[in-house]
Amino acid sequence: MTDPALLQVDGLSVDYLTPQGSARACSDISFTLRRGEILGVAGESGSGKSTLITALTRLQRPPAVTSAGRIVYHPADGEPVDLVAQSERALRRRRWRQLAIVMQSAMDCLNPVMRLGAQFTDVLRTHDPSLDRAAAWQRAGELVRMVGIAPDRLPAYPHELSGGMRQRSLIALALACDPDLVVMDEPTTAVDVVMQRQILAQVLRLRERFGFAVVFVTHDLSLLLELADRIAIMYAGRIVEIGSSADLYHRPKHPYTKGLRDSFPPLHAPLRELSGIPGSPPDLRDPLPGCAFGPRCPRAHAACEQAVPPLRTVEAQDVACVLYDPQNPEATAHA
Amino acid sequence: MPDTPVPAPRGTSDSVAPVLEAVGVSKHFEVRNRGGNNAVVRAVENAGIALHRGRIVALVGESGSGKTTVARILGRFYAPTEGEIRLHGRPVAAGGIARRDYFRKVQLIFQDPFGSLNSLHRVRYTLGRALKLHGHARSRREVEDGVIDLLRRVNLTPPEQYLDKFPHELSGGQRQRVVIARALAVRPEVLLGDEPISMLDVSIRLDVLNLLAKLRDEEGLALLYITHDIASARYLCDEIDVMYAGQLVEGGPKEAVIQSPKHPYTRLLLDSSPDPGRSLAAGSASEGLFTATGELGEPPDPADPPTGCRFHPRCPFAMDECRESFPERTEFPDGQWVHCWLHQKGRAHLLAPAPPAQSLKETRP
Amino acid sequence: MRYFRRRLGFYLFTAWAAVSLNFVLPRFMPGNPADTLLRDLQDQTGQAPTPEQVHTAQTFFGDPTKDLLGQYLDYWKNLAHFDFGVSVTNYPTPVSQLVGQALPWTVLLVGTTTVLAWVLGTALGAYMGWKPGSRFDAIFAPTTTFLHAVPPFWLSLVALWGFSYKLGWFPVGGGYDPKVPFSLNNVWFVLSVLKYGALPACTLVFVGFNGWLFSMRNVMVTTVSEDYVLLARAKGLAAWRVLFKYAARNALLPNITGLAMAIGGILGGTLMTEMVFSYPGLGLLLMKATTGHDFPVMQAVFLMITLAVLVANLIADSVYVLLDPRTRDEG
Amino acid sequence: MLNGILRKWNVRIGLGIFALALLVAFLGPWVAQSLIGWSGHQVDYHAIGRPPGHGHLLGTNTAGNDVLAQTVLGARGSVFVGLVSAVLATVLAAAVGVPSGFVGGRYDRVMTAFTNVFLTLPSFALTLIVAGYVQGAPWLMIALIIAVFEWPGGARYLRSQTLSLRGRDFTVAMRMVGETRLRLVFFEVMPHLTGIISAMFLRAMVAGIFAEAGLAFLGIGSTDTISWGTMIADAHSQSAILNGQWWWFVPPGLCIAVLGMATALVNFGIDEITNPRLSAAGRRLVKKFHAARAAGRRAAGPAAAETAGRST
Amino acid sequence: ACSTSRGSSGSDASNIDTLNMTASSATSTFVRNWNGFSPATDKAPGTSFFYEPLIRIDTMHAKTPEGWLAKSFAWSNAGKTLTFHLRPGVTWSDGKPFTSADVRYTFELPTKTPGLAVVPIGYRSLATPDAHTVVIDFAKPAYQKLATFSTLNIYPQHIWAHHNPKSWTNPDPVGTGPATVSGFSPQQIALTMRKNYWGGPGKGVKKVDIKAFATPETAKAMVLNNQLDWTSINWQSAKKYFTSKDPAHNHYWVYPTGGDSGLDYNTGKAPLDDVHVRRALSYAADPQKLLPLAPTGQGVANVTGYSAAVYGSLIAPAYRNQKVTADLSKAKAELAKASYKLNSSGVFTKGGKAYPLTIKSVAEYTNWPVWADGLAEQWKEDLGLKVSAVRVPLAQMTPQLSKGDYDIAWDWQVNGSSAWASAFGVLHSANTAPEGKPALTDYTRWNNPTTDRLLNAWQNTNPADLAAQQKYAYQLQKITVDNMPFRPLVDNGSFVVASSKNWTGWPSPANTNYVPGPTSGPDTTMTVLNLKPTR
Ligand SMILES: Nc1ncnc2c1ncn2[C@@H]1O[C@H](COP(=O)(O)OP(=O)(O)OP(=O)(O)O)[C@@H](O)[C@H]1O
Ligand SMILES: Nc1ncnc2c1ncn2[C@@H]1O[C@H](COP(=O)(O)OP(=O)(O)OP(=O)(O)O)[C@@H](O)[C@H]1O
Ligand SMILES: [Mg+2]
Ligand SMILES: [Mg+2]
Q1: For residue range D81-113, what is the model confidence (pLDDT) as tens digits?
Q2: Which residue in the set B4, B201, B206 is minimally distant from A45, CB to CB?
Q3: CB–CB contact B117 D176 (8 Å)
Q4: What is the Cα–Cα distance from E441 to E314, expressed in whole angstroms?
Q5: Into which CATH architecture does domain B16-31+40-237 fall?
Q6: B65 lines ligand 2 (CB under 6 A)
Q7: Does C322 touch chain A if contact means CB atoms closer than 8 Å?
């Protein structure tokens, strides 16, 4: 893993401002994404995954605001830039050529009253004005063929395509301008396992071909374990653990990661009784002073309520848990 | 937490009479297709399913394969186009058993716990109505006691705390448990669960699965569990039936089906299901059956299904027979059965060694 | 296409219902043209009608409820020949002539003001919905709320009082300057039509655009938060392109059907405006016919309005199908 | 949900205005007689067509009636017509729409066609024609006529809502538990329609007031009651516009407008609850946030902005 | 002929030759329909400029008939024969001569054309011994029919014989009258005065523009803006809002029509069958106080209803100068005498039964409803009697009155074309009907043999015999004043709005023998011919 860094996220915080008070949906998020890497982000519903994705691509909608942090992007050519500080106009030039996005619901993401092909050509021609109409259409055809859709479906309207086709065409669309980074927010939740497999296999093959990096968000940890190079586990707006897939699966450090892993019964391995994670996630509007997972944590103790544990490197991964705090007497018990 | 092995499935399906049984049911929907002409969607074709006391049958299959339709036929939400439903061996069609009496025996649990509870009614009302409707409680006292008892049975404790809550004050898992409690209120013998956990957050799904297992074990309910997720089916069920494009293609004891699938579609399903254990079992990656997953093709159009075995256009082993007619049922000694020409034609060896499927991820240098 | 066939069937049915209703209504309602005539006569001459006159008037108008089926068939036969009969209060002028005289004015007034109001409202609404909470939105939203709540005819009255009587900027009524020769080839005539139509048109636009503005704004706000608009932004498309091709175009759809649905209401509102400004259109004709119990004219005007509404709906349906491919497959 | 609605300021103001209008409508004659000191018809022979002042807060009309007293009495004429027509229209809409959506099948098709026909007919022209036939009808009749042409829109909307509610899991679930049809309609489906129905009711009420005023203005209103509509019509026919007696025709029009605005406010509130995206509150906060940030940055200089980004 | 540029009429620089006027009733648009046989109420105006009757009525002098197209007329054969001597030298506007054949054609048309909505005169025979004589024979003495001839315009046979009078709209009328149509648009009709009119070319009016006005408000505004010279609308507070703005040029006159309006009591119905109730109501009604509420310029009526200015000596000397006044003490005394008693809430009761009263008036009129409201208020304050005021739409007033569906109504009373006709319509039992059945014109359901006998006798009296006329008139007047089937309150008037900025020569009510109404037949012609331009 010696690839150069593509994206450096540093202390990113995102708030939702509501009349009832603001909720910090992403809090002090830091990580580095390397070129060509697949970073998985997992966590339960409401943990801030989508918020993170939209913040990374600077696409957040009111009432979300980036309240702190930097997102430093390293283009292949040129100086690193902080996306947070960029103007909308400057960003627009980077969009899709460098940053593309695939969202969860393909039906909602395609303009229902535009033909599929037109949704390709407008972005192609925006970023490459030299492309004429026919050439753009040609290119759109190549793109959809890449994901196993016949180019003669280009004149179709989105509602005339099956769910799987729509989802795949979104992936093809994301690759239209050969981006450096594709962020994917649960791109396969709405399709069934067979289709999911097909789509992910395609993403991997295309990644091989084009070398883009992926930030892949899902709540399905078992899927990420197969797919991602590294995985970040989010809980209540924070990354609680980040590390390679293998490490996370075999040696989860954070009690939450462990609980999450054990929420997925195995397909082949011997069965045992699993219990999931009891309780429900905290209210982000009213954060606890200590570890947000404390109330649900089987190993919680007094120290957990004091302060939010910082992310620190433990063995191969980074964990935010007092159990791994060298100053914590309980820590040794586990480590 | 100690790793306690799940008890092995008890009894076999043949030993006792099924509580609820679908015999050769089909369901066709009249729809209007794009040209504005009428078309028939063959959502379910000649399916048979038997639910036994104290056992859970899982029905798996990809989207649109007809699972929900089967559940709704069993729940008498749809009348089957063909075939019949038998409750304790008695056909229930037209006049056989009154709807009210039927619902007393068979209850359906919906996928979406957010939608299946009326947001304007308190838990007390929802459960109380179910009790009163079937005469299980009359006075206020009885209703209150009945509701408390129900809440306790679905592990919502202390029950008093939940009595007067509105659905939006409950978490997803709690809501699904209220839904189950409502189904239990009529004291059914059969529960039909249509993807009862798929809308729940990952961390709380197991809770509900464990509750269903408890109901089977402690109350001897017969259960149908519909899911996409084979892993959870394996975790919960005794028996797995696989459905493809409206047809039941394979079934049998769960471990048999999962460890040695006899139908290529079951293999595809298993290969497609994420399994962290598999991919991370270092170096064991070998060729799967469906390597070129990209060229698998689209699922069939239920309004115009392929002839013969409906899986043939996507099947790597497709033979001429497969295109012509639907194969007979092949039974195996351990209770597994399959509809596949490979077995009829003695080519089963093609499937025989079930290698651990290929990992999605290439091992990168 | 099946969709069209079904819609067409519906419109034919509605047209039949409207036409029949039109036939039935006058025949079963109290009131009597003879009485109206006599009273008017007395009103004009200042003399009581003689008993002979009373008798003559009553026999002239006869009993409207005799041989209904035969009348009904005749009614259809006449309609097929575009024969709407003869006006009572303008006897023996054919109704078609009266309608022909009034129709252009209403078409002119309603046509231009509806289009103007719609375009203005939709454009402003799109802009407000694009950036909800902006200063423009914050100022305009409450203002238009209030304007929307003002009864149109009252606003017309106030406008008439202010602009015509107090300030004298506009004429107090009529469709053109009677001093100018009545001819479309005459520039002065055309100018006078514009001058006379300005105030009614302005009030109609003023009252009318708020509704469009609101529906457009609200749909736009919703549309702007759709995922496909977000994706369009993510694609780095120019802002105007996102606004027009993705947000506004989709948000426009309800306003298009709304336009057709509203035609009936618009005609109703115009009627009052025509009253206030004595604008010589269909509304005024209908009004006069109603007070004069001039059934043939009432029937004809009502039929015109109904047909206009039906045609507008039909057009809107077609346009909608053109603009929204999803409807084409609908059952 | 109902609680949430009542907590919105615009809903509160709107409902407040409605409550006031109702109060005035019911207490009208009493208010006029004891608070204003003039009944609507009482003639002040010493003040004919006087502008506001001299014991007449809103002046008098040319018949020597106190305009304020008439406005107060007119509330009754207008509001009652609005109220009754709204009740009728809403009941009709619910009685046609809800069963149509719930029962479905042929009954639904017939009712839908019926509703659509009504919806397509130009209602105001028809109202005018029908009202013209029954000229000089008592206010109850006027209300009835208005209601007859006001229900179809609501019926269609209620039908589609019922249709969707009927297919919703919770209704299906209760049916599968064995719930009776009647209770399904009244206890499962109807409660979800109350928001819609109440909004519809308010809108119908104002539409009724509008329609009454319009008809009165055209001389087809009820003739035995004072309403805001008849006041405007009288003012118009008695040359108040030409003679500039604004105090005569402005108050009733404003009253109608204010009631109209009250409905708009209530409906906005309901809209914002049912479609939270319409609420601009969040956006305003975001704007404020950015403004505060920009101000902070300007105050602290560019260097501070760099570090500010990293804190917290 | 119209010029192609903007109209130049009325501009300050040139001489004035166009009279700008309106028709008498509001219409927003004209329809080109001058079919005189049509019963239409919205025909195009201007008829009196084209068609003329044989005689005219001098309203200002006891409604005396005078010759018009007929130079003279005479009764013979005890009122059974009427001879008209036509004016020689009269031509139709197309140049053809006017003869007795045209008169014959016109009078015979209703009887010869089935379905024509025109009342036949009802003569026995009609003869035209020569081109200028028309002799009409009646079966009975027909003195009172004479007035009818003042409303029957004569049409040219040579034109109408070629058209169907039932369906022809007569777009370009050819008549004996002073003008012809030179232009038509929906808002204006342009007329050109004939040079060869039998009555002479007049004193200066060359053209007449008849303008449409949708509401009286529009007409008022047009007058104020100097767009109109002449119109006929009732202008409340005209002094304040009109004449005082330019007293020298702005004129507003209310010409008496001879009749009045006031209260009709439904004498066929309790409690108004009780004369004391009627008197109580009448004595408590104070028109003096009502008039300012709708100050149209009309005056308080004579107690008989007959206007003294018109009928003069035909009104009984006892009443001649007696205007209606309120007398509260008399009212209260009558109330005490009534067999119906007022209960605490002000409703008449008798035998435990309550008889609530309403007063109806025509909703569309601007003055009556206001007065009716005021009356209700007066009765409430002065008698403690509760009467609710109801406004009835114009179209329904007649049916309701006719069926007796009212208690008290504000309505016209003595408004016939002659003193006799005025009384006959409202008093004779031939014109009434039992309760519930439609009465023709006697809405109060006054049914009294004496009255009938007097009316019948009067009908057969030669109008020239003034003493006989007076005898019957006085007796009838006493009956109505005493029994009060109706109570006159306000003089009926023709309202005339005129401006002398452009045209002078308007008559005034004090000294005129014609009424300057814009649609008053020959009187209109007389007015126009007498106008002189100011420049
Ligand atoms: N528009 C909004 N206004 C206020 N709070 C919001 C808004 N959108 C999201 N949130 C809150 O922000 C938090 C994170 O939401 P986010 O959508 O990022 O979660 P997620 O991890 O993507 O969940 P899911 O798996 O359900 O998609 C949640 O607690 C949510 O309640
Ligand atoms: N009411 C209906 N009318 C017409 N077609 C229907 C109807 N219900 C289901 N179908 C069709 O029948 C087929 C089977 O649908 P069903 O819902 O049973 O599938 P499923 O296996 O439950 O799918 P999923 O996993 O997506 O829930 C689908 O093609 C569906 O489109
Ligand atoms: Mg998300
Ligand atoms: Mg399903």
Answers
A1: 889 999 999 999 999 989 988 888 888 888 888
A2: B201
A3: no
A4: 23
A5: 3-Layer(aba) Sandwich (3.40)
A6: yes
A7: no
